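Hey,
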Amino acid sequence: MSEISDFGVIVLIVAAGVSLALLGRAITERLAIPSAALFLVAAAAASDLFPELGDALSFVTVERIGVVALIVILFDGGLDIGWRRFRAAAVPILSLGVLGTFASAALIAAAAHFVFDLTWITSGLIGAALAPTDPAVTFSVLGGREIRGRTGTILKGESGANDPVGIALMIGLIELATTEDGTFWTVVKEFSIEMAGGVAVGAVGAALLVPLMRLPLPSPALYPLRMLAAAGVVYGAATLVHGSGFLAVFVAGILLGDRPLPHRREVDGFLSSLGSLAEIAMFVALGLTIDLTELFETDAWLEGLVLATLLAFLIRPLVVGALLLPVRLDRGERLFVMWSGLKGAVPILLASLAIIGGVDDGHEIYGIVFVVVLFSVLVQGSLVPVVAEQLGVPMERQSEP
């Protein structure tokens, strides 16, 4: 009987936590405060007040939670964009998602090395971790409103594309940092295999899934579950061939996005809700791994604030502004894309990979990335609706599913 009681306590805690998280999301939407900031800070504070919470959650567990959450978020993001919208904005999406990620990572690494005298390996890992943007954070700060037109597609597409690129780059740099005979070509080789495998599996997976998704099921409630299972299959198949599972699910989502699949409305509503829950789970899990007291006893908070300021006001505008020069956008839309490169759970997840991989200075990297992300979601994120209004970027209320 004690087993039933113990499990009942676990169910109570989890259910209460989810209920509070959903309530917190509703509150932050009314106050125009990014929900990501609330979950991240609340979880970090809770782990300081109750150390057993942080001790019960290992970095490996956090990494697994983040992987599952990203599968849902990226697949849902790909479905939302669709092939037609992606094709219309393919040039800026790919240039920002690939070239922009490399350029941002390089400039962040240079700033960390020359300003704080960190080693090139440590600086490179910080740059790779902070280069990707976060689609879930960007659009959760808009108060239930959605950006229409090419601007919204570019931001969503960039965020979906640069997450797999940043992850592959980070994995390559960790190999370089932890292998004695590792060279620059180690990073190039790892990145190339990840990208090629991800695109190939995503395209093949989408082609195979189209006829399977049209097969009738006995209940409408099963169609969203089948779509979710399909995303898991695509991710797993990509990892088996050493490709990027995240890129594979994003590509598959884009290619399936415009297909007239049965019960599409129910599928989209389910995946959107699950994606929001996955985002909450990621930020809570990542926040629990941070020791705020220890963070403020080191220089990580100061280094993080300096890098966050440079990234928001210099590096991101410089990189994005240069890459968007050949793209036909209004001045307000161009400036809005330059400002809206918000950091989220993915950079913290990448920093946790450095700790799991046994990289020197892994905990320092994790602390710096945490501060940058907190600055991004709290300061930049809070200003996104204001910036959009001032720049005349059109937004409208999201329709109910």
